[in-house]
Every structure is written in structure tokens, then in C-alpha cells.
Design goal:
It is a single chain. The protein is mostly helical. It is 58% helix and 6% strand. It has eight helices and three strands. It has a three-stranded antiparallel sheet. Helix 2 crosses helix 3, helix 6 packs across helix 8 and helix 7 packs antiparallel against helix 8. It is elongated, with a radius of gyration of 19 Å.
């Protein structure tokens, strides 16, 4: 099935050298090209990202071999030169997003995918410097958590804040998201040192 977003995305790739999935999603939403796709927020976010990634991978195949479309969630770039075998190499992510059966994923499967994403993201995050007890308590107060908050409570609050301030919601939240991500790493480190 041909994705209707392909032309819209291609036009945007021509106007700006590098995109991120969340900035592309925001641009398409602000222009009214993508509207709400599901009543449940996490499924809506999943479906938006699925449609964009599907369109990007279809476009990548259409452009090859004359042009290269590099696709990563935080770096999407259209290049004039061809990188040999880019589309012919095995890519599980591309295969996933080109399979339309994955579009109508259940809420439980979306939650599992998000949890897996965050676990992989946390595992690859650089270790943040330790914080003292005063800094820890200040962050916990800002997060509206008690000073005795457990790691489980901190993780739950992190996910709430991450969902609230995720850059997919608004490009203005990107700095807030980065800050709370760093605070989360510091809080996790402080829990393991207690």
C-alpha cells in the first residue's frame, strides 16, 4: 500500500537538510496533514510514528539507487549520493515499518514496545555524575515526589513526565525533556548508591 505521506515528507526533506522523527511529526501535525489517529494517547503516538517511518522507508526504496535517504529516529537525511546496498541490506526496523499489519498494534503491544525502547535507551545513556542529598531532594520536590521515593516510584514519575514533555508533543518541550531525562539518570544513580 502506498503511503499518502510520502510526497509531503519528501517536500520537507528538500527544504531542510536533517530532520528528526518527532520534528517531522510535529510539522505534519501543525500543517493538518496528520490528525488524531487513535483515542488512546500511546496508540495515537505509535500510529503517527508508524505512518512516518513507513513513508520514510517507502521513500528510501523509491529513491534508491540515485539518492540515499538515511533513516534513524534522531537523524533523517536526504543525500544526493548513493551509498551502495543501503536498501538491499537486511534491516529489521525497515521490515517492521513496511509491514502494514504492524500499524494496528494493540495497546499492550505498544506499551511493551515503549518499555523496550526506554530500557534500550537507558542502557545506552551515558552515566551522569552523582548528586548530593540536597540536590536529590530538590529534584524529588520538583517532581512532586517524597524524599523517600523508591526507584519504582521515580521510574513511574519519569514515564509520566517523559510522556508529558516528549518532543513529539511540542518542539518547545525538547529542552524540558532533556533536563528531566538527565534528572532521571541522576535520581536512578542516587538510588543505586543508597
Amino acid at each position: 500500500m502506498l503511503n499518502p505521506l510520502i510526497d509531503e515528507i519528501f517536500e520537507r526533506l528538500l527544504t531542510k537538510q536533517v530532520w528528526k522523527v518527532h520534528t517531522l511529526a510535529l510539522e505534519l501535525s501543525e500543517c493538518g496533514i496528520i490528525t488524531a489517529l487513535d483515542e488512546e494517547p500511546s496508540r495515537d503516538l505509535f500510529k503517527r510514528n508508524f505512518l512516518i517511518m513507513n513513508a520514510l522507508f517507502q521513500l528510501q526504496q523509491q529513491l534508491a539507487p540515485a539518492q540515499t535517504l538515511s533513516i534513524a529516529s534522531l537523524h533523517i537525511k536526504l543525500e544526493d549520493t548513493s551509498i551502495e546496498n543501503t536498501v538491499t541490506q537486511a534491516d529489521p526496523l525497515r521490515d517492521y515499518y513496511l509491514d502494514w499489519q504492524n500499524y494496528d498494534t494493540s495497546a499492550d503491544e505498544v506499551d511493551a514496545l515503549l518499555n523496550q525502547f526506554w530500557q534500550n535507551f537507558e542502557a545506552s545513556a551515558p552515566v551522569k555524575p552523582e548528586i548530593n542529598i540536597c540536590q536529590r531532594n530538590a529534584i524529588l520536590a520538583q517532581w512532586q515526589l517524597d524524599e523517600q521515593a523508591s526507584l519504582k516510584m521515580i521510574q513511574k514519575r519519569w514515564r509520566q513526565l517523559a510522556f508529558q514533555y516528549h518532543p513529539d508533543k511540542s518542539s518547545e518541550d525538547e529542552e524540558v525533556f532533556k533536563r528531566i531525562r538527565e534528572e532521571y539518570e541522576q535520581l536512578k544513580a542516587s538510588c543505586s548508591n543508597r
